[in-house]
Each structure stands twice: as C-alpha cells, then as structure tokens.
Amino acid sequence: AKPFRLKHVTDYLLNQLIMAGPLTGVLLFWKLSKFRIKNEFDRALLVNIAGFYIIFFLFSFKNRIEAHWTAAIMPMLMIVTYHLIKKDSGIKLWFKRLGLPVIILLMLFRIYLAIDAIPNVGHTKITFYQREASALEIKKMAEGRKVGFFNNYAAVSNYIFYTGDSAVHLSTPEYRYSQYDLWNEEKYAQGESLFAIQPRHMDPPFLTRMVTGEMKGYIIIEKFQSLTGLKIIPHKPELQNGTYSFKIELHNTTRHTIYTRHVSEPVLVIMQNNNIITEIPLHQSNKPAIAPGEKVTFHFSLEKTKLNQREPFVLYTRSKENIRGEMISVKPKYPRSET
Length: 339
Hints:
Blueprint: H1 6-20, H2 25-32, H3 40-59, H4 74-87, H5 89-114, H6 131-142, E1 146-150, H7 153-163, E2 168-170, E3 194-199, E4 208-209, E5 215-221, E6 230-234, E7 238-240, E8 243-252, E9 258-259, E10 267-272, E11 275-281, E12 289-290, E13 295-303, E14 313-318, E15 324-330
Parallel strand pairs: 1-2, 1-3
Antiparallel strand pairs: 3-5, 4-5, 6-8, 7-8, 8-13, 9-12, 10-11, 10-14, 14-15
Helix pairs in contact: 1-2, 2-4, 3-4, 6-7
C-alpha cells in the first residue's frame, strides 16, 4: 500500500487555489462560501464542485494529483460566483485589479512558451522548447532503428507527431500507468533492435546534451521482446511445516510467442512492502517458449515467520533492461492450518 504523503496534499490545495486564479482565487473561494442554494440547478452545481474537490483531496493522501484534473468544474465555479462578485462593488473592483495583470502576464508567458526563437531560460519551458528539432535529432541518432522512450509518455507522443514514425513507450516497474498501457503499441518493435532513450536520473550510458538543453542517454536493446499480455495468475498458497508454498501461472494472451530463453532475460518478480522477495527467471519453467494461449507454472516458498500476512504481494514481469510487463497486486487467502 502507498504511504501517506503530506506533500501531495499541500501541493493539491495550493494548485487548486492557483487554478481558480493565481491572485483572484481567494476571492472566488470566499464568495463560494457565501453561495446559497435557491433551486435544483444551484444544488447540482454546488454538489459537483464540492464532489470534485473532496474526491481529489482524499486521493491526494497517497497520490500526486495533477492541477488540471479539476478543470471540468471551473465553468461551474464561474457560474456560481459571477453574480456574487458582480453585486459586490468592493470585491468586483479588487477582482479587476488582481485579474487584469494576471491575464496580461499569462498571455506574455504563453507567447514565450510558444516561440522557439526566444531562448529557454533554465527549465522554464523545457517541456515545449525545440520539440520538433529534438524528435528529428533522436531519429537521426537512431540510425534507422526503431525508437523507444523510458518513463516518458509525452516524449513518445511528441516523437510520433513530429516525425510521423511510430515509437514505443517503455515503463519501469515503479513508473505510473498511462494510456500506452492500454494500447498494444509494443508490437511495433517486437523482435526488432530498439534505440531506447533514457532520462538523466536513470544514469544511462552515452549521456548527451540534446538540442532542448536536456541531458539524456540511450541504450540499444538487441532484440526487443514485450512481456505485456503475459498475464499473471496467482493461486491460493498452501502451508506445510511452517512454510507457505505459492503457485503462480503465466498465461500468454498475446498472438506472438514469448521466449523464456531470450537475450532480454525475462524474470518474474515477487515483492512485498517494496522489498523483492524473489526473482524467478522464466527459463526455469523448462520451456524455451510460451506459445499463444499457453500457460506455464512457477513455485516459490516462504517461511511463515518471514511473511506479513496483512500486506499484499506485488507480482510483475520485467526484462534485464527493467522494462515492465504485466503487474498485479494480490492479497492471498492464507490457510489457517497445514495440509
């Protein structure tokens, strides 16, 4: 389970104040507190506004919440507070005084972000700066290989948009899930040599300063094999002589063969409380390959005294490059007596 993070909560509250208006947000929320329900439409507006804020506030206890996730309620917030601000001459005057400079500054800032001719300062517009040139630079570096990006779904989208080529998103086990986990785009590079870009914090080889100013490295994956679609099926453990025996099946639900003896050295990882309990190489199934629709079985044992029965297990597959395949969290139903 994820731990409570106070930083996520404070970031969420601050971001929502900024979303309502960097300077005018306080006025909006103060007027919102004065709003009184007169009909069902008013009630629907207030319930939706409160519901969004409360739900994401609760989620923020253990998750990072993007500021724009509450953007859907901004029109409702304006409807609710508009007449209250309009009728209050003092608040209306201060709203104009605070709002107009913000609008002007935001417009100038957007122009600065949009025009590559204006140099980037620090990391101010690193997300937008020279993106077309960066995509073309990476395509040239790949020298005809297919391209993948580690832990950066935005970079994949930029590359596809500016080059017209496909690309692969490569997630490590700790990286967040995204739309690329719902798409079967990894088949594009199946069995191919892959030029994989890694961010600086992954300590990659061949670290290079890109045209954007970012430092990135890369690795060459000799023969890419996706483990997505190799479903993990855990079974109820058995207790014998103070030791739990676990049985796990892997089911190939894809249309291609997954090789257990492969240059990518695929493994099944069992983890609890962020500690890896064991890693089982897939070749221990004694099958060189898992055909479409086929299942293979793995076993591992763990002493009862070394097991926290209150915490779930995390099971996932990965390659030697630490590319995540399938991942599940499961809390087994432990037998009370030995068999």
